[in-house]
Amino acid sequence: MVYEIQKSFLLANDCIVSNLQRDGIQFQSVDISVFYTQISSQKRVKFQSIGEKYFKIILAENEFLEQDKKEISQKVFLKEQKNALTPVLKKKSLEFKFCSLKSYIELYENPKLCVLKIFFETLKDAENFSIPRDFKVLKEINLDSKILSLYGYNLHTFDIEKCFKIIEKNQNFTLEFPDAIGAFDGFRIFLFYLFRKLKFYWNLCLENKQKDDLYEFYLYTQKIFIILSSFDEVFDKNLSELLALKFKNLAEKSSLILESKDQEDSLLLALSSKELNDLFNDFDIFIKESSFYQGLQKDVFFKQLVAFEFRKKLILFKKFLIKDFEYEEFAFKFMQISVFLEYFKSLFNLKSLNKLSDKYFLNSQKKSFSKIMKKRKKVLKWIDISSKNLRIYKG
Fold first, then answer.
1. N or C, where is the chain less crowded by C-beta within 10 Å?
2. Angle formed by the axes of helices 351-360 and 376-390, nearest 10°
3. Does residue 359 surpass a pLDDT of 80?
4. β-pairing, 5-11 with 113-120?
5. Contact 346, 331 (CB under 8 A)
6. How much is the average pLDDT of 251-256?
7. Omega before 111 cis (within 30°)?
8. Distance (Å, rounded) from C-alpha 29 to C-alpha 258?
9. Ramachandran angles phi, psi of 269, nearest 5°
């Protein structure tokens, strides 16, 4: 078997197509679409259409990547498309000869990309090849259809400082994370958002001394604790754990003040303390520092890491529900799932997560507790479906 050596280049735009056509280059054009019905660390099942031909491809990821490819009918292809786990990835492939080399320009619909692929007979040919400036190459890349289907592609450098400025001015909007954003940037933005909301209610508490404001302050301390403790390897692990513990203690103090009779005095004492100001200053530096506090999982996709942790929490919540437990245990686990549903369900656009959120996690803990207990089988069903769908981001 002859193994072809391939190089792929991301182009700034598709202007090169019309330029090459003016130079008399002939293209053979074909439309290609791809979707997946199974994705795991052991196996992928992919369906592909190339023009009027349709294929089912099974990729077994063992020591050697084994591929079983067979042609199928259009009817089978369209039927399987209804079971697709990922959006259909569509592109137009233009084949041509470039310097006598088999080459393709691929125009992707979503994400909107223009990619040049060139095939070489030898490794030496590939190493010595230099692409002309007219092609406006942004960089050499290695595209994987599975990665593109799950996370898309971020064409532009992410401007995190701009995000900080937007959040600084206004927190009254819903966060929407790009699929291709990395974990380090994604969680810096998310934690900064939560932190600004926390400080907003902190100021209201000091000004108005209202119980409702203190309750919101308590909720945001809990949210920050949950995120820091759930994703402690995105940032420096030791510092993440230390800050998580401090926010946990702050949440416990806030809870005690909410139950206290001399609430006003306790509130002023706690919220104007040097200890709290030091925590806020440390946390602000922790979020805004761009490199010093990076952890082992900084380069993982934000969406992938969220999916993994979300699934883990759902599985643990399911195990929790099928055994005897105290309400106090339920309260914190309910809070964890609520936070993940509130901020992350839109990342995955899953009916099962929307059902869990809208039917069982929107009300207060006590109301939700009663409803979950009455509808336990349905809750477990939606958890199972969600867990299965989130598993595709594991491998």
1. N
2. 150
3. yes
4. antiparallel
5. no
6. 90
7. yes
8. 68
9. -65, -45
